[in-house]
Amino acid sequence: VSVCFPSLHHRVSYAGRMTMTRPALLCVLLAVASAATAGDDDGCVPRNFGHGSVACECNSTRCDSPGAVGSPPVGRFLTFLTSREGKRLEKGQGFVRNGTAGAGAEYNVVRVPMASCDFSTRLYTYADTPEDFQLLNFTLAPEDLQMKIPLLQRAQALSPRPLSLLASAWSAPAWLKTNGALIGKGTLKGVAGGKAHKTWANYYVRFLDEYSKHNLTFWAMTTGNEPTAGMMTNYSFQALGFTPETQRDWVSLDLGPAIALSKYPKTQLLILDDQRLLLPHWARVVLNDIHAARYIHGIGVHWYFDRIAPADLTLSTTHHLFPEYYLFGTEACAGWIPLDRGVKLGSWDRAEEYAHDITEDLNHYVTGWTDWNLALDMGGGPNWAKNFADSTIIVDKTRDIFYKQPTFYVMTHFSKFLLEGSQRVGVSFSAHTDLEVTAFIRPDKSTVMTVLNRSDRDVQFEVWDPATGYIPSVSPGHSILTVIWQAQ
User: Fold this and answer.
1) Pairing status of strand 446-453 against strand 436-441
2) How far apart are CA 319 and CA 325, in angstroms?
3) Which pTM value belongs to this model?
């Protein structure tokens, strides 16, 4: 359904309220194995498109699913394996040793664009009447009333857990901007505290008002998608420019007070919503101002330039400077690079990029991670700006089928098994390894460990949990593995 408006963002289930560390330590004992373990068919209908792995074909009546997954009994463990060779959440189990030797992905946070973005079919805002500073003509668009809202309501009804909605705006109405257009380089007219800035802040509250009429309330809002984009000359789609200084002042004088004095004072506010390479500078400018900081709860980051922005220098540094504000991944997608653009059905390289980035983020204090689009068509759209990309689900509307990409299963390894409220624990290794690992204690006191192997070789290992014992397993080359066990 979301191919009609593929601007809904879904997030994995560790939604901004997770404690990230606790004084516990797991040890991984390593050995090299010679071959991958074999397994039975996991329900996927595989289709190979020549991009390194397979996509799983689904239609309106049949689709593979891991089903409901609970915690294993004490003394046993569960594993779930996705691999380049074609495994998709293949379930395994075993016994914890004394000595060495649900249905669906369960996303629980949804990022909702406020009016149009590049993945819309047209440009619009909710207040396109010039000089309407009182927002008397503010109105939701047909895209909201006929598509977004019904889909959100349906998703909420189907979800076993409450959905947390997160709103992001791409651009203010053109008449509020210095360039008089939704696209390109442009900022709000005037200065913070002025009527244009006040109107834009009130626009956020009016959005909350209109969605609340449909029994949809928002956990959080961001200060706007990629504020640096609006500072770029000839930027090709919707944007609104802010510097950290102007964002600080707008939050302090306009947006923060508007939300605090509205009917939605519990709606949280995330700053930045842009590349992590802007950290920690952006956070320092905004959060060192007490007048702005008192309205802010978190910092949103995008993944697009993570390769040139080391997590230690950006994420961890920001966390240690401002530990009371959570970090939250607010956008990511594959297929956005010009030389590697669009859909690649069955791409395993893109699945490993997702798994690596999520694991790295989690290990550096990030508490949630956004996949841009829930679903796109075979061309990586629709997108009015032709800024096509890939998605975890690709719809072939001509054949009434859809494909679940390897990235979908990677997301599920986190969203289904890593529950909100989990606490990250330390992991040490007995030797150097290519494995990338993150581990958490869940609210039900079970432990979940996710193991990414981007190498060509299989790695046999054991997990030693002082509270439980030894858990033997193997990580096949080019795979992602989830291990779950219950403490004694």
Assistant:
1) antiparallel
2) 7
3) 0.89
